[in-house]
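[Discussion] Sanity-checking designs against the backbone

I'm trying to build intuition for which residues belong where. Below is a structure token string of 284 positions. I'd appreciate it if someone posts a full sequence so I can compare it with mine line by line.
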């Protein structure tokens, strides 16, 4: 079965996703930042660092993160989301990644900070006690997992009344047939994503997991400048970055398809084949 024919409940192999992020680590932080996610440009004049922090603050606001909030960051990457929310709002953060290289970076940077705890572990087997957290944030991570199972785990670890904030891609409501396989399905394959549901279908999944949705925001127009800026960063850094040149031009990497995915995602966010949305909800 080809990637373009994957059933809706199919999910990428965990080891493949981890290797994807490990390979990107050779160049990612030098090109972008230690925030492994989109930026949010409100005016279009923000720097990359300002835009990625703005996206994290959107998630923090939606999850009502404040002093002493017990927060889980699902798919935490380099730990930058938890680091920012802990240092600016006083939260205590437990972060999950499946990438050994991201984990080692985050653990090294945050060594000695008692409010930050990092786990190299699959979110679907997280080992956390029931009802032990106040908030869960998932920025562009649920898309790598079977969503129903991932959302049930979010609900399980939250206390009643705890908050969930998800920022991620969803499929457009009426993607033209000619865009489905060459654009949407190939983008999912190259970025190791599960087939993207529409927003309405995803909201149904959130409700089914035990949440009451209280906010939905379409952030597409604010985030779609991410990938053109990323391409520009790659072009500017190629002459002076040997690791980046190896990633772009060498055949030693299995994830070179991600570069094509950047172009597909750029087009998909412009055509409406995908949307980028924030969903916040309360554990019932």
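Best answer:
Here's mine. Compare freely.
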């Amino acid at each position: 079965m080809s990637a373009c024919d994957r059933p809706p409940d199919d999910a990428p192999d965990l080891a493949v996703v981890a290797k994807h992020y490990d390979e990107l680590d050779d160049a990612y932080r030098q090109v972008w930042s230690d925030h492994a996610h989109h930026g949010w440009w409100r005016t279009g004049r923000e720097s990359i660092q300002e835009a990625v922090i703005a996206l994290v603050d959107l998630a923090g606001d939606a999850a009502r993160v404040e002093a002493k909030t017990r927060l889980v960051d699902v798919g935490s990457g380099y730990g930058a989301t938890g680091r920012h929310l802990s240092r600016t709002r006083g939260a205590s953060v437990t972060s999950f990644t499946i990438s050994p290289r991201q984990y080692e970076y985050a653990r090294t940077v945050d060594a000695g900070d008692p409010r930050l705890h990092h786990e190299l572990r699959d979110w679907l087997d997280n080992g956390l006690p029931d009802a032990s957290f106040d908030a869960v944030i998932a920025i562009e991570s649920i898309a790598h997992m079977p969503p129903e199972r991932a959302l049930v785990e979010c609900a399980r670890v939250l206390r009643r009344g705890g908050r969930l904030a998800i920022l991620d891609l969803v499929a457009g409501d009426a993607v033209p047939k000619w865009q489905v396989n060459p654009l949407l399905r190939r983008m999912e394959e190259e970025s190791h994503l599960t087939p993207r549901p529409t927003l309405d279908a995803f909201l149904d999944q959130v409700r089914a997991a035990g949440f009451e949705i209280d906010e939905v925001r379409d952030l597409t127009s604010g985030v779609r400048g991410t990938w053109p800026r990323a391409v520009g960063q790659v072009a500017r850094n190629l002459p002076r970055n040997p690791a980046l040149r190896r990633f772009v031009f060498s055949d030693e990497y299995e994830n070179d398809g991600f570069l094509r995915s950047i172009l597909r995602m750029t087009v998909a966010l412009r055509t409406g084949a995908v949307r980028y949305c924030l969903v916040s909800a309360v554990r019932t």
